[in-house]
Structures are given as C-alpha cells and as structure tokens.
Design brief:
Layout lengths: L10 H9 L16 E50 L2 E21 L2 E2 L4 E2 L2 E17 L10 E10 L11 E10 L4 E16 L2 E5 L2 E28 L4
Antiparallel strand pairs: 1-2, 1-10, 2-5, 3-4, 6-7, 8-10, 9-10
C-alpha cells in the first residue's frame, strides 16, 4: 500500500481537477472494401477409370512393332446436375469424351526367304476414342454455380372504373443470371494395356516361314486425373 500525503497547498489544484468534465476520445476504424476478382476456381479433382477394347488395322503385313508412343486428348467434358440447392450444384454426373492418339513404327514385310526378309519401316497414327460417365460430389464451398437462373413474374392492374378482379393492364418482368459453364482440365493420366498381334498368320516360301500380323487387338485400362473448374468471383485476401 502506498500512502500519499496531501498538503493544504495542493488542495485547490485537486479541487480544480475534480470539477473537470471527462473527455471521450473516439477512434474510427476504417474497414477496406472487399475486392473481388474473376478467376478460374478448382472445384474438384477426381480420378476416372476408363476401360477400352479396340482393334487397330495396319495397311500392310508387319513382322515386328518397333516402337510406339501414346497421347491422351480430352475433347468433351459436360457436367449434368442431379442435386442442386440454392442455385449451387451439390452432386452431378460428369460425361467425358476423348481419344488416345497412338503413333507406331513397325517393320513391314514385302518378301522373305530362308536367309533374309526385307521391307520398309512404316509409320502410322491411330486414334482410339473413349467415353465415360462418373459420379461427382462437390465439397461445401466448392460448388459450381448453376449456368442460368431465370425468374418470371406477372403483375396485374385494374382501372378504377372496373369493379371486381378483371385485369386490364399486365406488366411482365423477366430476370436471368448467367454464370460461366464448368469445364475440365486433364491433370495426368496413366495407361495399362495388353496387345495381341493378329492377322495374316505365316508367310511360306519353301521350308521357311515367318509370322506376320496386320491387326493389333488392345485391351486398355486408362486412369484419368481430372480437375473440374469454373470461372467465379473470388474475394481477394487483403493483409
């Protein structure tokens, strides 16, 4: 405890302080406005398996497949809403279409004998189409906005001279809100396949023979990693 000694000389000063009115200081807090940007937003990332069975026919008999390379192209991706709430898609079906572009080099057989066979090294490109449909569920806060919202209203007016509910004037109001359509991007893919050589069978000349083929039968399991995006208005974080 601290004891303070007040002398008579200090008493008038204290009385002056006691009569002063308290002052209130207001501080203004300025909140900056929220800034929005329009940018693609990643709504979901899913893995889609696709099973493909196809046959590729070569334009001439071949004895050996030298090398090949594959490239997957996503051509169509359409989201169909099956459950929406407050103009936001909660669940949907994703319809996917694309092609596998296969580049191959093979040894074509023109003629063969017991000691040698000859032919050209040929190149061909085949496109294998594929389709798939998969279910997709969007997490809270990452739902796509519906592509279009439309409201229609009709207002009826009666003139003063009319009695009852017979309308004489009508006013129509239409409102449509357009959103960017969701779209897809292919992030990555992996492919496993079994290839069977079919076709012309054996080429005989005397006692010599060589197996040739002109059909490649392929069983493919394609794994696609796909992102679903939509251009939305996103609040910009300010620090």
């Amino acid at each position: 405890m601290i004891n303070t000694l007040v002398t008579p000389q200090d008493a008038p000063e204290l009385s002056k302080l006691s009569t002063l009115e308290p002052r209130i200081i207001y501080s203004r807090s300025i909140t900056p406005p929220v800034v929005y940007i329009q940018a693609p937003k990643i709504l979901a990332r899913i893995q889609v398996p696709v099973n493909i069975s196809t046959e590729i026919t070569l334009d001439r008999p071949a004895s050996e497949l030298k090398r090949k390379s594959d490239r997957v192209l996503l051509q169509e991706c359409q989201l169909v809403a099956i459950h929406a709430h407050h103009f936001k898609i909660k669940e949907g079906k994703l319809f996917i279409e694309g092609v596998i572009e296969t580049n191959m080099e093979f040894a074509a057989v023109e003629n063969t004998s017991c000691t040698e066979s000859y032919g050209d090294i040929c190149h061909t490109t085949a496109q294998v189409p594929f389709k798939s449909c998969t279910h997709i569920t969007f997490a809270e806060g990452n739902e796509p906005n519906l592509a279009q919202q439309q409201e229609q209203s009709t207002f009826l007016f009666t003139k003063p001279k009319h009695h009852g509910t017979m309308p004489s004037l009508r006013q129509f109001s239409n409102q449509s809100v357009y959103q960017h359509e969701p779209y897809c991007e292919l992030v990555s893919y992996s492919m496993d396949e079994v290839v069977e050589e079919k076709g012309t069978g054996m080429k005989h000349e005397g006692s010599c023979h060589e197996k040739t083929f002109n059909i490649l039968s392929k069983q493919i399991v394609l794994h696609l990693m796909i992102e679903v995006l939509q251009v939305q208005q996103i609040p910009l974080q300010q620090h």
